[in-house]
Amino acid sequence: MKNYLEFHVICFFFRSVKNPQEFWSEIAKEFYWETPATEDKFFSYNFDLNKGDIFIKWMEGASTNISFNLLDKNVKSGNDVLEIAFLKYQQETASACYCKTS
Questions:
Q1: Residue 66 main-chain phi, psi, to 5 deg
Q2: Nearest to 25 by CA among 43, 1, 45
Q3: pLDDT at position 1 over 60
Q4: 60 in helix, strand or coil?
Q5: Is pLDDT of 2 > 80?
Q6: 34, 64 Cβ separation under 8 angstroms
Q7: What is the phi/psi pair of residue 70, to 5°?
Q8: What is the largest CA-CA distance in the chain?
Q9: Phi, psi of 18 (to 5 degrees)
Q10: Mean pLDDT of the region 55-79
Q11: What's the pTM?
């Protein structure tokens, strides 16, 4: 691994694969939701063609405003530092971009 950020991304990935509902439930708690996801519609999937069409559904029926979560929520809470991380996956490689205002 090249650096701490890459290590952090890999740890996040493995946690999300091992127990996706628990992982994404924790992440979702950090956001403001106009309409929160209900527990029974938070995460569902089928990877078995014998049981019907293949699908993955996340937070069905939930809605949020990502701009509010990114900017307004932080300003209202008194944070004068904004941190943004962007992850890009393409075929066999992954890259990360991180910026912080002070």
A1: -65, -30
A2: 43
A3: no
A4: coil
A5: no
A6: yes
A7: -80, -45
A8: 54
A9: -65, -45
A10: 83
A11: 0.58
Tokens of 17: 């694969």
DSSP string, 3-57: SHHHHHHHHHHHHHHH-HHHHHHHHHTTS--SBPPPGGGSEEEE--GGGSS-EEE
Q: Extract the tokens encoding 68.
A: 């509010």
- Radius of gyration of the chain from Cα atoms? 17
Provide the 8-state DSSP code for 63.
Answer: B
Q: Using alpha carbons only, what angle is made at residue 87 by residues 81 and 89, rounded to the nearest 5 degrees? A: 175
CB 45 within 8 A of CB 57: yes
CB-CB contact of 34 with 13 (8 Å):
no
Per the structure block, which two tokens stand in for 101? Answer: 């205002």
Only one residue has tokens 């049981």, namely 51
Residue type, 52: G
Residue-range domain boundaries for the chain: 4-100
